[in-house]
Amino acid sequence: MVSVPDRGIQLEALLSRIGENRGDERAWAGLYDLAWPRAIAIAYRLVRGRRALAEDVGQEVFLRLLRYADLSRLGSGEDFYKYLAKMVENVCRDLIRKELAAGLTNIDIEEIAENLASDASPSDLIENREFISRIEESLSDEDKRLVRLLAEGYKVQEIADRLGLSYSNAGVRIHRIRRQLHKELIVKGKN
Fold first, then answer.
1. Where are the domains of the chain?
2. pLDDT at 113 over 60
3. For 47-155, where are the alpha helices, taking DSSP H only?
4. Distance CA 10, CA 29 (A)
5. Cα–Cα distances in angstroms (integers) from residue 157 to residues 32, 139, 150, 166, 179, in the given order
6. N or C: which end of the chain has fewer CB within 10 A?
7. Domain at 120-190: CATH architecture
8. Can you name the CATH fold of 4-110?
């Protein structure tokens, strides 16, 4: 069995090889063998134990690593693992957006979002959930739909079209919701 320090050295050597030659299939296979369990563990926690979904997240993460990541700028194995964890979180966020856009609600969005804020203490998480509930209660159903569309990345005109509003009406409502949220955040910050 390979010890933890040996794995760190092995990881750094693999990152160096990939940095020198992105086409080094053996180095990619070694990186996959070392990093896959960690990526799946993080994703598994974030998606609340849905194994197949965690594996989908892991596959997407490795595709993004292969296609886009400049691994040569990561100096250490620790830096790589931080980068990997952030990528897993980002892929989970993308998944949430896609699920919302498709209208699929079988994933508990709040739980995943709560897990993404894992640095917060349990009391902070409870406080944040209460804060979100308080804001949701203050919004009308139409404003909730507007916020959901905004969170999904729709532009003001697209939101207006979907909700049957004029462009200026949608813009004003978005402005008012943001102002209300800003006030709530200021009050929350004072408590």
1. 4-110, 120-190
2. no
3. 51-68, 77-102, 109-116, 122-138, 141-151
4. 12
5. 43, 21, 11, 8, 20
6. N
7. Orthogonal Bundle (1.10)
8. Rna Polymerase Sigma Factor; Chain: A (1.10.1740)
